[in-house]
Each structure stands twice: as structure tokens, then as C-alpha cells.
Write a structure and sequence with these properties.
The protein has 413 residues and is mostly helical. It has a single domain, classed as Amino acid/polyamine transporter I (Up-down Bundle), CATH 1.20.1740. Helices cover 72% and strands 0% of the residues. The chain is globular, with a radius of gyration of 20 Å.
Length: 413
């Protein structure tokens, strides 16, 4: 049912300016920037040499949910994707609002955590107090996000290319230093009978899942995407596949090239990995890590602001949050709100526990989205002609795998 706030108005609207290449780079940027430069040590601490398998398992869980998101992006091409998808199935205003706010909360925590990781890399070059570095990073990224969608996504896309090049350099250096690595990849996958290893992989999968958060965020740019019905599903699938391959290879090289305790103890694990592999100063890779993490911050701000905008447009939040600036054609009020919230969280909130809770929140939201698509399909709601669709078994598996990853670490011994 269309609410009054969904009806066309004379107010400025979001600008459709993003094609498939930029959308894929956006998906890669928010995903890669959200974790791999910061979480390698944490995953290795839980799973040891089997840490690469944790990333594979997290990707497997993500895959079914990704396909559910791909269908929903065609059925309901609106910002605040997860919230409006849940509303389509349940039509409970409170659940729509809660879902959207959970996404905003997780994006704020993720952006804050990434900014702290970025500050760790920046401090290697500029020994300034952490609060100063964090403040400069978040405020400057907020200004870029407010500038305009094409400009901000183009900026993020350039940073994404740089960070991918950095990761590919590490992968290449690892295999050049030890060509036998390629033959031993199967050793990174634990035996099903090794219960201790499986517990470690499951525990690390929750951490690895945080590093995959982002592919789903592209749906929140659907109102700014050219030909979204065709473009959005491809962007989601390409982003997830590319990130999975990169993550697995980087983590595999890391646990093979650097002792686990060293990875765990390092505040800049990617820089340490580069130094150990090449014998060169980690300066170049440190700069790339700064680029990657700053990229993660700007994209989290863009995404969260679109969710707030979408909730405002649906009437679930005050309408001043869905106003679009006529000059920048961006939701400026929402962008300012998210930037301030992220800065406050980074400066004043202990984020260690919140990062793990963010993964749990996203898993819960993904489970809701999969359940929502199951309900929509069970009701046989007609899908618009020509959109990407999946069989009902896909959201069912997505629901089960999300719940499994969410609760299995508490029961597997």
C-alpha cells in the first residue's frame, strides 16, 4: 500500500547517476573497507590456520541472502531497502522502523570502528592524538558524502580501486615468495571431525561476517541507480563473488606468511603482512590501508543517510530527514545526522563489543529479509515483469544459514 509520503511531490528528488561499474565499486568499497584491513588478526585469533575457511563460510551464508536482496531490489526499488522489504511482508510499522534503525545503528558502529582502524594506520605516519585523527576523518568523509551522489561514489570508487590494488599486491607477493602455497590451499579447510577447529571456524565466521557487511548496502542506492531492475542484481552478485575471492586469498597468505600471534598483536596487520612478504617499508601499504578504511567510512555515511532518508519518506521518521538538498540532490539533513552520530560513537562509546553485536544485528536483519521474501512468495504477490527472481528455497536456506551462524557458536562444543 502506498503511503502519502511515497507519492510524487514537488520537492527535489535523488539523482539517478550511478551505473553498474560505479555500483560494483561502491559494493566492493563498503565491503572491503569494512573489515579486511582491520579484522585479519581477530579472525586468526579464533580460527588459527583455518581462518580462510571462516571467510568462505561467511560468504556461503551471505550468498543466499544476497540473492534474496537481488529479488527484493526489483520488487521494491526504494531506499531503506531492508526496512521496506520487511514492511512488504509484515506491514507492521514498528517492525519497519526497528529494522531501519538497526541498519542505521550497525552502519554507525561499523563506520566508527573503521574510523578507529583508519586512525591506527594514520598514526603510523602522523603521531597525532587519536581523537583528533578520528574527528578529521569522519568530518571530512561526511562532507564528501554530502557533496553529491555521483561525486561521492566516484570518490569512493577511486579509493576502492586503490585498495584492491593493494590487496592484489599482497596476494601476488605471497605466492611469489612461496609458490607452494597454491598447492596447500586445502590445508586451510578443517576436517568435519575436528570439533575444535570447527568451533574456531564458526566463532571466526561471526567476525568474518562483519567483513562482508556491505554488499547488501548497494540496495539503498536503488533510487539513484540507472536502470536499477537490471543493474542492482548484477552489482550485488559481482560484489559478493569478487570480495569472497579477495578475502580468502589475503587471509590465506596472511596466516601462511606471518605467525598468528604477530597478526593478533598488530594494530596494522596488513602493513605487517606487506613488510614480512616484501622486506620493504610498509609505508605504501599503510597509505593504501588509510585509503581503504577512509573509503569504508564515507560509504557507511552514504548508506546510513539513505536509510534515514527512506524511513523519513515512509513517514517512520520526521520528514525533515527526507528532504533533499536542491543543489547537491542528496539527503543533507540525514547525512549531517549520521556524521555527527558516527563521530560521537567513535569518540565516546567503547566499540569492541559493539562490533560483534553489529554482526549479530545484521544476521538478524538478513534473517528477517529472507523470511519476508518467503512470506511474499507464499502469498504469491506478483513480481514486476522482467525483474530478477529466485526459487523459494533460496530465502529458506538464507534464513536457516543466518540463524545457524547466529546461534551455532553457543551450542557447538
Amino acid at each position: 500500500m502506498t503511503s502519502p509520503v511515497d507519492a510524487p511531490t514537488s520537492q527535489p528528488e535523488l539523482r539517478r547517476a550511478i551505473g553498474l561499474p560505479l555500483l560494483v565499486l561502491y559494493g566492493l568499497g563498503i565491503t572491503i573497507g569494512a573489515g579486511i584491513y582491520v579484522l585479519i588478526g581477530a579472525a586468526a585469533d579464533q580460527a588459527g590456520m583455518f581462518a580462510p575457511s571462516a571467510f568462505l563460510f561467511a560468504a556461503f551464508v551471505m550468498a543466499f541472502s544476497a540473492l534474496s536482496f537481488a529479488e527484493f531490489s526489483g520488487r521494491i526499488p526504494q531506499a531503506a531497502g531492508e526496512a521496506v522489504y520487511v514492511e512488504a511482508a509484515f506491514n507492521w510499522n514498528w517492525l519497519t522502523l526497528v529494522t531501519g534503525l538497526l541498519i542505521v545503528f550497525s552502519a554507525t558502529v561499523a563506520g566508527s570502528a573503521i574510523s578507529l582502524g583508519s586512525a591506527g594506520y594514520v598514526a603510523v605516519l602522523l603521531p597525532l592524538p587519536q581523537p583528533v585523527i578520528v574527528s578529521v576523518i569522519i568530518i571530512s568523509m561526511g562532507l564528501i558524502a554530502a557533496k553529491g551522489i555521483r561525486e561521492s561514489v566516484m570518490f569512493a570508487g577511486i579509493l576502492t580501486v586503490i585498495e584492491i590494488i593493494g590487496l592484489l599486491l599482497i596476494i601476488g607477493a605471497g605466492f611469489l615468495k612461496d609458490p607452494t602455497m597454491l598447492l596447500d590451499i586445502s590445508a586451510s579447510i578443517p576436517s568435519m571431525g575436528d570439533s575444535a577447529a570447527m568451533v574456531g571456524v564458526l566463532s571466526a565466521s561471526l567476525i568474518a561476517f562483519f567483513a562482508f557487511i556491505g554488499f547488501d548496502d548497494v540496495v539503498n542506492l536503488v533510487e539513484e541507480t540507472k536502470n536499477p531492475t537490471k543493474t542492482m542484481p548484477w552489482a550485488i552478485i559481482i560484489s559478493l563473488v569478487a570480495v569472497t575471492v579477495i578475502y580468502f586469498l589475503v587471509v590465506y597468505v596472511a596466516v601462511r606468511a606471518v605467525p598468528i600471534p604477530d597478526l593478533v598483536a598488530s594494530e596494522a596487520p596488513v602493513g605487517l603482512l606487506f613488510e614480512r612478504l616484501t622486506g620493504m617499508s610498509p609505508l605504501a601499504i599503510t597509505v593504501i590501508a588509510i585509503v581503504a578504511t577512509m573509503n569504508g567510512v564515507v560509504i557507511e555515511i552514504i548508506m546510513a543517510a539513505r536509510v534515514v532518508y527512506g524511513l523519513g519518506r515512509k513517514g517512520r521518521l520526521p520528514d525533515w530527514l527526507c528532504r533533499v538538498n536542491p543543489t547537491t540532490q542528496t539527503p543533507l539533513n540525514a547525512t549531517v545526522l549520521i556524521t555527527i552520530s558516527m563521530l560521537a560513537a567513535a569518540l565516546f562509546v567503547p566499540l569492541d563489543d559493539l562490533v560483534e553485536w553489529t554482526s549479530k544485528i545484521i544476521l538478524f536483519v538478513f534473517a528477517l529479509v529472507n523470511l519476508a521474501l518467503l512470506i511474499v512468495k507464499w502469498r504469491a504477490d506478483p513480481a514486476p515483469e522482467g525483474i530478477f527472481t529466485v526459487w523459494a528455497i533460496v530465502p529458506l536456506i538464507g534464513l536457516v544459514t543466518c540463524l545457524f551462524l547466529l546461534f551455532a557458536p553457543y551450542f557447538v562444543v
